């Protein structure tokens, strides 16, 4: 629990003190963490904040439009189309940690460029407590922490929600009157769909994962999962018409959790699972199978890479 009555003014003051008279950029992802960080920073420094949304091509379906709508009131919002640069940097890379590092570095480069343009010396990030713990513990390098390159061209990085758990960030979001959709949104990982396709990131796999994630979030909303997702985990044989095909295997996952550190796979009705299967295979001719992941965390993680 966080006392929002004291947290909000303290965070705003701290951001103002850290940034002083300088300008800052905020990395918007559309998730609750960066949205709260943005709202706090906006309150602290107003128009000296430039919110930057990098469209990596690894985002949820419809995300860019959603961002445009949510942050419409911030006039300095910049939307950067970086899809080609991310895909090029990731081409041929199969190792999960390497993928995360490449994405983290590319992110920072994009921000640096925008920051120079906005004459900003500070970078605001929505890093939360579990991101730091998991990176420091060497479990995975989260793109916004462990993936940072050694030399970052900013005077400082400001992380106003760095000591909060996800449910506490949601409390702050409600206290700030952020759009309920944003406040209650399921977490989405910084490296996006890149950690929901096993192995090399390709346009084809991304399209399958993006549509499947959309179907899963939509169909499982009533189960109120902490997080629900789909991942492209490999290839297997299937039948389309009279032909055997070698198509994608999509794994569906829905978990309950408090903070993402541990999680329990949810029990989902057969009918809901069948609807999901039918929508995912219906949307993509090249999906051969849909499976449901029953593994808790530990021993599994929530994401696939
Ligand atoms: P795992 O897969 O480690 O995920 O069990 C725990 C929670 O963290 C999210 N996640 C990330 N978030 N950058 C992020 O901002 C990352 O690199 C990252 N990796 C995992 C994941 O979606 C889950 O909510």
- Principal-axes shape call: globular
| Count of structural domains | 2
Please report the number of helical segments: 10
User: What percentage of amino acids are in beta strands?
Assistant: 15-25%
CATH superfamily of the largest domain, called what? HUPs
How would you state the average pLDDT, rounded?
Answer: 91
Radius of gyration: 20 Å
The CATH topology of the largest domain is: Rossmann fold
Order of helices and strands: HEHEHEHHEHEHHHEEEHE
Q: Roughly how many Å apart are the termini?
A: 30 Å
How many β-strand stretches? 9
Which kinds of small molecule does this entry bind, naming each only once? xanthosine-5'-monophosphate
Helix amount: 40-55%
Largest sheet: 5 strands, parallel
Low-confidence stretches: 145-151
CATH uppermost class of the largest domain: Alpha Beta
Summarize the helices and strands and which ones pair or pack.
Elements: H1 4-19, E1 24-28, H2 32-45, E2 49-55, H3 63-70, E3 78-81, H4 83-90, H5 96-117, E4 122-124, H6 129-136, E5 156-158, H7 166-175, H8 180-183, H9 203-220, E6 227-240, E7 243-256, E8 264-265, H10 270-283, E9 287-292
Residues 100, 131, 134, 140, 142-144, 187, 189-191, 195, 227, 260, 297, 301-303 line the site of xanthosine-5'-monophosphate (XMP).
């Amino acid at each position: 629990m966080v006392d929002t009555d004291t947290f909000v003014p303290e965070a705003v003051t701290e951001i103002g003190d850290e940034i002083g008279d300088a300008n800052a950029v905020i990395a918007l992802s559309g998730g609750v963490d960066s949205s709260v960080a943005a709202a706090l920073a906006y309150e602290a420094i107003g128009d000296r904040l430039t919110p930057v949304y990098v469209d990596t091509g690894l985002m949820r379906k419809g995300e860019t439009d959603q961002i445009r709508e949510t942050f419409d009131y911030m006039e300095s919002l910049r939307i950067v189309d970086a899809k080609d640069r991310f895909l090029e940097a990731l081409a041929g890379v199969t190792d999960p940690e390497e993928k995360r590092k490449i994405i983290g570095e590319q992110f920072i480069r994009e921000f640096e460029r925008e920051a120079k343009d906005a004459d900003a010396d500070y970078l605001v990030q929505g890093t939360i407590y579990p991101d730091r713990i998991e990176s420091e513990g060497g479990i995975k390098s989260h793109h916004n922490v462990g993936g940072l390159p050694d030399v970052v061209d900013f005077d400082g990085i400001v992380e106003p929600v760095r000591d909060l758990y996800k449910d506490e960030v949601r409390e702050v979001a409600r206290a700030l009157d952020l759009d309920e959709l944003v406040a209650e949104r399921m977490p989405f990982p910084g490296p996006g769909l890149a950690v929901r396709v096993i192995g090399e990131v390709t346009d084809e796999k991304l399209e399958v994962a993006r549509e499947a994630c959309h179907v899963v979030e939509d169909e499982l909303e009533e189960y109120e999962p902490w997080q629900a997702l789909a991942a492209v985990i490999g290839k297997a044989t299937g039948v389309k018409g009279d032909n055997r095909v070698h198509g994608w295997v999509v794994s569906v996952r829905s978990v309950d959790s408090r903070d993402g550190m541990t999680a329990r796979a949810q029990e989902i009705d057969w009918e809901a699972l069948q609807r999901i299967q039918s929508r995912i295979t219906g949307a993509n001719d090249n999906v051969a199978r849909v499976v449901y992941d029953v593994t808790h965390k530990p021993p599994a993680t929530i994401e696939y890479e």
